[in-house]
């Protein structure tokens, strides 16, 4: 199987520029590990595959490089990067700091807004649970992301969610590696339920404690992940 066999065709939205759409498609494949670290992404073949010139492909690859998801070797090749643990730790710090403040904001929302948030969070947890048996990783991950995004929206800091997502490529790949671990998905749901319960009764301290526990889950398994996938981890960043 060639790399192009692992890249689905893309129905382009003619009302949007091509490069961002190619970027989003390739980023999703890298985050989901459909395109593993070390995979070569040939620009000319990508252009032919998507039916585009090489210019939007180049622009998309440069954006991926800015996010640390690929390494571009001029006149040679573009390669999906190894997972950088230092970057993952930095984004974990950023996200935890932001979401602690978001929880504070959510606990003091006007009653009608607070009630609306709680109902939406419950719906996301229902979606997560329904994706467990049989386990659908893609559906589960989307519901997981939606749970957190809902709180950013309630706190009216949507652009911070965009910032966190932009910076989260490394930790998202670690999370995807950790997701198949026995009991991991059920633990994520339990964490979300603990956050929800604390928010529902407006217990800021309990919500913060549940959030810290939840966000630290993947990073606590870095050593195990590195043992299982040694060729996928940037060793210089994990010492």
From TrEMBL:
PROSITE patterns: HTH_GNTR
UniProt domain HTH gntR-type: residue ranges: 16-83
GO molecular function term, any single one: DNA-binding transcription factor activity
Gene3D superfamilies: GntR ligand-binding domain-like, Winged helix-like DNA-binding domain superfamily/Winged helix DNA-binding domain
Pfam families per record: FCD, GntR
Keywords: DNA-binding, Transcription, Transcription regulation
Keyword Signal included in the entry's annotation: no
Source domain of life: Bacteria
Keyword Cell wall biogenesis/degradation tagged: no
The protein's name in its UniProt record: GntR family transcriptional regulator
Native source organism of the sequence: Sheuella amnicola
